[in-house]
């Protein structure tokens, strides 16, 4: 069952791609005491994720922060080195925290895994976006497979 409004963000360890290299992050601490817009993508460097999803949050970062979002985070079932390379490729500095869920532990804890093993991609994260205030989900939008309609930065901004 996927995470829903009112649920607490699971507290697990993920890695964050930073300019200094990978850094361990406890998701319970990351979400504590602030409003976070988190979006998940099936994979770094994939076409829709690179051309639309990540850019939609970069383009709306200032507006999201003006509406009370303290942090924006992108999460994918990739390792921190891939997420760091993707951030560099996309020109990300500190607008978006790039969270690597390499073993899909966080993804599975949220009930958002998507098995693409038959297509050679393994377990991935469904495309989604959520807003959490002090670790509690206040908004979530999960895309249908192959869709990109409800999880953009614009959609999250409209939901705030």
UniProtKB/TrEMBL annotation:
Classification via InterPro entries: PRX5-like, Redoxin, Thioredoxin-like_sf, Thioredoxin_domain
List the Gene3D superfamilies hit by this protein, alphabetically. Answer: Glutaredoxin
- Which reactions are catalysed by this chain? a hydroperoxide + 2 glutathione = an alcohol + glutathione disulfide + H2O
Please give the CDD domains that the UniProt record associates with this protein: PRX5_like
Please list the residue ranges annotated as the Thioredoxin domain.
Answer: 3-160
Q: What is its EC number?
A: 1.11.1.27
One of the entry's Gene Ontology molecular-function terms is: thioredoxin peroxidase activity
Kindly list the GO CC terms recorded for this protein: cytoplasm
A Pfam family this chain is assigned to = Redoxin
Q: Which UniProt keywords apply?
A: Antioxidant, Oxidoreductase, Peroxidase, Redox-active center
Identify which residues the record assigns to the active site: 49 (cysteine sulfenic acid (-soh) intermediate)
Output the superkingdom of the source species.
Bacteria
Q: Which GO terms describe its biological process?
A: cell redox homeostasis; cellular response to oxidative stress; hydrogen peroxide catabolic process
The reply to whether Oxidoreductase figures as a keyword in the UniProt entry is: yes
**Briefly, what is this protein's role?**
Thiol-specific peroxidase that catalyzes the reduction of hydrogen peroxide and organic hydroperoxides to water and alcohols, respectively. Plays a role in cell protection against oxidative stress by detoxifying peroxides.
Which family does the record claim for this protein?
Belongs to the peroxiredoxin family. Prx5 subfamily.
User: What's this protein's name?
Assistant: Glutathione-dependent peroxiredoxin
Q: Which organism is it from?
A: Neoroseomonas marina
